[in-house]
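Input/output pair, single chain:
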Amino acid sequence: MIRISLIENMICALGIWCLGYRISMDSIGGLIGTGLDFDIFRAVDNDHAIQYIVLFACAQFTSAITTGALAERTYVDAQIAFKVMLNVLIFPIIASWVWGGGWLAKYGY
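Output:
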């Protein structure tokens, strides 16, 4: 079980770096981030690295709650697919509403 969790976390870390971070931090007052900067191999400054770590930690905490409810009730491949989808697509979209300057940030949330 530890190996599966490690594989899930590595896949989610790469997925958040390649897609999720760009979705969550590039929202310009909209519902979803624009993802204008997809150069994943560039060096980042400390502020962006810290934002990525915070996004990854919050996404992992959210997915730990939901996958804990799925444990031993679903197949392992379905659990991995759900965790990756939650970390890479669902959580960054919701995070972009506040962190990326999205529509909830306009209302002071």
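The CA atoms of residues 2 and 8 lie 10 Å apart. The chain has a mean pLDDT of 80.
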